[in-house]
Specification:
- By secondary structure, the protein is α/β, with parallel strands linked by helices.
- The protein has a single domain, classed as Rossmann fold (3-Layer(aba) Sandwich).
- The chain is built from 4 helices and 4 strands; from the N terminus they run E-H-E-H-H-E-E-H.
- Helix 1 packs across helix 4.
- The longest helix is centred in the C-terminal third of the chain and has 28 residues.
- The chain is globular, with a radius of gyration of 14 Å.
- Pfam families: LMWPc (PF01451).
- Keywords: Arsenical resistance.
- InterPro entries: Ptyr_pPase, Ptyr_pPase_sf.
Length: 139
């Protein structure tokens, strides 16, 4: 299985989702390839995002925003977008499932607003992995 988490800058929401997904995958022992990117990548990860993720025990200080490409999701089963649309980078014959997570964009806000977005993303990723785990048991 392959999952992509995509937002505009790949400097906040999608990186948080990716880091939480990697933790869920590893803790649950599920075979899931995870990719991430942005439609207009920022120069660096937001300092506030690094800080709030460290509060949750996850270090993303070494990550660099990158552009998502059609090749990245060509074989993805799911693409989760936050603030952008899969139509911006969808390959012509892609037949995976697109999910849109409506999340606040916290850039330039307080640490509390970043924490709120982080916590919502953590909960959504956990629920998403519950769903993946249940569907893999039925298959």
């Amino acid at each position: 299985m392959k999952v992509a988490f995509v937002c505009v800058g790949n400097a906040g929401r999608s990186l948080m989702a990716t880091a939480f997904a990697e933790r869920e995958r590893d803790e649950r022992g599920i075979d899931v390839e995870i990719v991430t990117g942005g439609v207009d990548p920022a120069d660096s990860v937001h300092d506030e995002v690094v800080a709030v993720m460290q509060e949750d025990g996850i270090d993303i200080s070494d990550r660099t925003p990158r552009e998502i490409t059609p090749a990245d999701i060509e074989h993805a089963d799911y693409v989760v977008t936050m603030g952008c649309s899969v139509d911006q980078f969808r390959p012509d014959k892609w037949d995976g499932e697109a999910r849109r997570w409506e999340l606040e964009e916290s850039a330039g806000e307080t640490l509390a607003s970043y924490r709120a977005v982080r916590d919502e993303i953590r909960e959504r990723v956990q629920a998403f992995f519950d769903e993946i785990e249940q569907s893999s048991h039925r298959a």
